[in-house]
Amino acid sequence: MKIGIIGGTGGMGKGFALRWCVNHDVLIGSRDAIRAAQTALEYSKNATELYGSVNGKITGNDNVAIAKESDVLVLSIPYENIDSTCPAILSNTKDSCIVISPIVPITKTNSGFEFISFIEKKPSAFEMVQKHMKDKTKLVAAFHTVSEKKLVDPNLVLDFDIFICGDDQKAIETVSGLVKEIKNLRPLILGPGSLSYLAEVATPILLNIMIKNKMKNPGLKIV
Ligand SMILES: NC(=O)c1ccc[n+]([C@@H]2O[C@H](COP(=O)([O-])OP(=O)(O)OC[C@H]3O[C@@H](n4cnc5c(N)ncnc54)[C@H](OP(=O)(O)O)[C@@H]3O)[C@@H](O)[C@H]2O)c1
């Protein structure tokens, strides 16, 4: 499978690349093709140091170029940039491409981390992305509550749950499979895409708890 990561030069992008290159080709996307290629080279070196050899290749190109090739595409960009980034990218995907949104509408205020969609009365990240999708059922929300600090280190066992929302069973199964490929992460279906704001809002809850209780990059687990 070819997994493209829009904004793959960021922290989450690195984590996804280092976890999934074990079994898949990973395409790093950036607004800048040169930065993408350099970053892909750096991640490839990291992967060789970590694993010796892997089955997938990590390469880089501009966001639109990688969107055209990807079987699964992760939108690893900030909430604020969805409307400026998605039209060019999502109009260029294959019809069968499954799109993953880990995007959290989050901001820091005097009170702590807050959910932009509530305080500014804006759509959830899922809703905002979905309006740009050719096939709206191919969007799956996941990975909102795993910290990039933990994702980037494959030596860490992440004994966490990942909430999944979507409207297409096959797309949900594909994304659940990718969650399971990251050792000890457990995919839990939360509901249809319309409920994905519940998964997104878990992140500011987690971050505020982390700070107030002096915890280090916690995750969530349903017991
Ligand atoms: N960080 C976490 O622990 C964490 C956890 C769960 C979910 N998330 C969510 O995952 C997503 C990615 O997180 P992140 O921490 O990796 O984000 P990030 O580092 O802030 O940004 C990721 C990439 O987005 C691209 N980008 C930045 N500004 C842009 C703009 N104006 N237009 C288009 N692209 C732009 C950049 O790539 P180029 O400059 O190379 O184009 C950047 O490397 C976010 O939506 C976040 O809410 C993050």
Commentary on this structure:
This protein has 223 residues and is α/β, with parallel strands linked by helices. The protein has one domain: Rossmann fold. The chain is 39% helix and 20% strand. The protein contains ten helices and ten strands. It has helices at 11-20, 33-51, 63-69, 82-90, 116-119, 125-130, 148-151, 169-180, 196-200, 202-212, and strands at residues 2-6, 25-30, 58-62, 72-75, 98-101, 106-108, 113-115, 139-141, 161-166, 186-191. An eight-stranded mixed β-sheet has the order 3-2-1-4-5-8-9-10. The protein has a two-stranded antiparallel sheet with strand order 6-7. The chain is globular. It binds NADP nicotinamide-adenine-dinucleotide phosphate (NAP). NADP nicotinamide-adenine-dinucleotide phosphate binds next to α1 and α4.
- The assigned CATH architecture is 3-Layer(aba) Sandwich
CATH topology value? Rossmann fold
The arrangement of helices and strands along the chain is EHEHEHEHEEEHHEHEHEHH
- CATH class placement: Alpha Beta
Cα shape: globular
Measured as a percent range, the helix fraction is: 25-40%
Structural class determined from secondary elements: alpha/beta
Q: Give the integer mean of the pLDDT values.
A: 97
Tell me the distance between the termini: 32 Å
Low-confidence stretches: none
- Order of the strands making up the biggest sheet: 3-2-1-4-5-8-9-10
- Counted up, domains total 1
**How many H/I helices?**
10
List the helices and strands and how they pair.
Blueprint: E1 2-6, H1 11-20, E2 25-30, H2 33-51, E3 58-62, H3 63-69, E4 72-75, H4 82-90, E5 98-101, E6 106-108, E7 113-115, H5 116-119, H6 125-130, E8 139-141, H7 148-151, E9 161-166, H8 169-180, E10 186-191, H9 196-200, H10 202-212
Parallel strand pairs: 1-2, 1-4, 2-3, 4-5, 5-8, 9-10
Antiparallel strand pairs: 6-7, 8-9
The structure holds NADP nicotinamide-adenine-dinucleotide phosphate (NAP).
